[in-house]
């Protein structure tokens, strides 16, 4: 009260469309448009195509590049050539998963997920609760865009010892997960057995769905899970942790992978 208004510059989260075009020979067809934060676009595209069933490994992508004509480029347009060619359009039409972002989800999505899901494997000793408690700070320390804007989600991939392998930020939490899984695809790490996926957001269906497809056995969210996320985690054998904030967290499924508190 009583303070004088001031004018200043502020950093805001960047949100721009990314158009994906499928190429076969000299022909080109539009595939999808998604809103994302520019950066790690190759990882995003690979993760998205993998989640939608268009590719099974990085070798299924013959080329991936920013659209260019002469000296003119369009950084928000990516052209991708797949081994399957335009057949991928039919695959995507049959297998596209709905998410809570479009307000439609349910048994049909779970049934389609079951056709491609792989059992998540955890071969090591029980996961240390102290390590889980350190994940939020480990993720937060690698979020420069959130530090600058306060408006970004993040997803991070960790080993059972707590080593951080990759972190990606984006305005969309599902995009951040796609970027991390795309990174893992390029690195030849899939399936992600014995890995932890940490997300700075709530754990909705689309986050757990993508984890299941990548073979992630443990998902740790800084915020709340949704009922469908819990159902999917329980049904597909994923350890789902929510409200991970310091020394306290809730375990919604798969408690057997955790050691003694």
Automatic annotation (TrEMBL):
Active site, renumbered: 102 (cysteine persulfide intermediate)
Family matches, as Gene3D superfamilies: 3.10.20.10, Cytidine Deaminase, domain 2 (3.40.140.10)
Q: What is the protein named?
A: Sulfur carrier protein FdhD
Entry's family note: Belongs to the FdhD family.
Tell me the GO molecular function terms: sulfur carrier activity; sulfurtransferase activity
> In which residues is Mo-bis(molybdopterin guanine dinucleotide) bound?
243-248
Which Pfam families does the UniProt record give?
A: FdhD-NarQ (PF02634)
Q: Name one GO cellular component term.
A: cytoplasm
InterPro entries, per database record: Cytidine_deaminase-like (IPR016193), FdhD (IPR003786)
The protein's superkingdom reads Bacteria
Q: Would I find Magnesium among this entry's keywords?
A: no
Query: Quick one: a GO biological-process term for this protein?
Result: Mo-molybdopterin cofactor biosynthetic process
Q: Which organism is it from?
A: Deinococcus hopiensis KR-140
Chief subcellular site?
A: cytoplasm
Q: Which UniProt keywords apply?
A: Cytoplasm, Molybdenum cofactor biosynthesis
Q: What does this protein do?
A: Required for formate dehydrogenase (FDH) activity. Acts as a sulfur carrier protein that transfers sulfur from IscS to the molybdenum cofactor prior to its insertion into FDH.
UniProt keyword Cytoplasm present: yes
Q: Quote the NCBIfam families the UniProt record gives.
A: fdhD_narQ (TIGR00129), PRK00724.1-2 (NF001943)
Where is the protein situated, by its record's location annotation? Cytoplasm
